[in-house]
Amino acid sequence: MAVLIFSDKANLALELLTAAEAIGEKAKILVINDDEQAEILAHAGAEVYKINNNNDVVLADTAQIAAVVKEAACKLGADIVLLSSNRRGKELAGRLAQKMGAGCLTDVSSMEINGGRIECKRNALGGATVATQYINTDKKVIAVAPRSFAPYAGSGGKVEELALDLPAAAVKVLEVKAKETDTVDIAAADKLVAVGQGLNSKEDLPMIEELAKKIGAEVACSKPLATDKKWLPEERVIGLSGKICKPELAILLGISGQVQFTVGIRDAKVIVAINTDENANINAMADYILTADLHEAVKEMNKLLG
Amino acid sequence: MNVVVAMKQIPDLQQIRIKNRQPVFDDVPLTFGTIDKNALEAGVMLKENNLAEKVIVLAAGSEDLEDTVKEALAAGGDEAFLIVGDDLNGAESSIIAQVLAAGVKKIDDVGLLLLGEGSGDNYSGQVGSRIAEILGWPQVGYAGAIKLEGNKAIVTRVLEDAEEVVEVALPAVITVVSGINEPRIPSVTQILKAGKKPKEVIEEDELDGINKEALITTVSNLAPESDRKRIVVKNVAELVDKLRSENMI
């Protein structure tokens, strides 16, 4: 049951090493055209196989990368491929699985061996439920959600070069634009103040930011505030298609609590819900419930917290 | 050139109730996933810019599809190609991908297959990638913008930390993010006209070579247990006291 790991991101590859350990396997890692990643991973104790400085390999070409990973898995005798369930990894997962004749699970948040099977947990029904599933086929592709496992820290790794027959790339990269730097990672924050559609206008954001600052929190939001109203960047979205957050404290303001949102915050230690609707869904999953207008409540909190 | 938009019929997630941690589907209406509607809108906009001839909605599911598809035809789809089978609702990605790929092969002159980046319910994101592999087409996931130039697509792929603009030859599979557009809301006239738009409905067993082997076993599918305190506080002062006593602020 050898395992091969591939991620375009070194930090996620380190998490996958820990994930492999959780299923009792020491994994080999494939690194494509990234000396820095190879070094970081070897330093952490990984057995790294790298395809080096090959301009013919285009990370943006999912079909080509799937062919490369399949070939590498074949050469290294791996039946199980662990990928990161970031966007690149998730896109790759389905194509690689189809190529390998493998069953595939994505967005996997935990894995454990049970009765000789790798039982995986993932959100289902838009986050309303958590499904426990396993893959029936010998060949398996599992994409693990970021931050589900701690980064691996070992020592005594090594780097070897791997020669593969590569198919030609069919996707041409014309331009890469780094996103405007939102340096805040809400998934890593200890405390969050999250706003939803109850917020009247963009002009009310400063008082939300003020509250966040006073309690040492970051500002997050529900999806419509970023994608429809564009008041906050997409990186601040909590939920199924946003970020899964596990803060110590989450203060949720004017959020009704659709499952696609709550799935991203239900593992918070303490949840506060402030909402005008006393029957809002969100109240069912809150520790403290205040039925009030969020604008008034935030103003008062800011005053009280000095 | 025609654009095919693959859409998934799912239960309306807002209406699913949880009883004893089990989801209850009784009387829950069927609809299409929200990101699927962004994929449809992207296809309709290509047609409106005279870059595509027809927008064809492709879906596989129970026979309720004939009704569910009306909302997509009202929102700009020209025709529907439906593959109907009793066990197709909620069938796993590997099977749906084969069925939809077989459907694409039966449609003339397909230049582009569009999907949402993930379905509304399972959000596994496998189907588009699996179809691309079956058809041997290039793919671009997470598109935030699509331009067509001759037989090429110029696509902006939105990643977590960057956007990359890539060029692929058609035919290709593209999945879109919800930020790509705002799906139109059809007018009453459009809804009335939708019922008259052409629909081709075939039975799943008319398709050859579908391997229906289950690749995944589901052990359980339960709502997570929640043991929240659910303390109702009267005012902000009481809330602040409570949070202070828990050393949260």
Automatic annotation (TrEMBL), chain A:
FAD binds at residue 275. It comes from Thermosyntropha lipolytica DSM 11003. Its cofactor is FAD. Binds 1 FAD per dimer. It holds the Pfam family ETF. SMART domains: ETF. This is Electron transfer flavoprotein alpha subunit apoprotein. It comes from the Bacteria. The keyword Flavoprotein applies. GO terms for molecular function: electron transfer activity; flavin adenine dinucleotide binding. The keyword Flavoprotein applies. One of its GO terms (biological process) is fatty acid beta-oxidation using acyl-CoA dehydrogenase. Belongs to the ETF alpha-subunit/FixB family. Residues 1-178 form the Electron transfer flavoprotein alpha/beta-subunit N-terminal domain. Keywords: FAD, Flavoprotein. InterPro entries: DHS-like_NAD/FAD-binding_dom, ETF_a/b_N, ETF_a/FixB, ETF_asu_C, Rossmann-like_a/b/a_fold.
UniProtKB/TrEMBL annotation, chain B:
Residues 20-211 form the Electron transfer flavoprotein alpha/beta-subunit N-terminal domain. Pfam families: ETF. GO terms for molecular function: electron transfer activity. CDD domains: ETF_beta. InterPro entries: ETF_a/b_N, ETF_b, ETF_beta_N, Rossmann-like_a/b/a_fold. This is Electron transfer flavoprotein beta subunit.
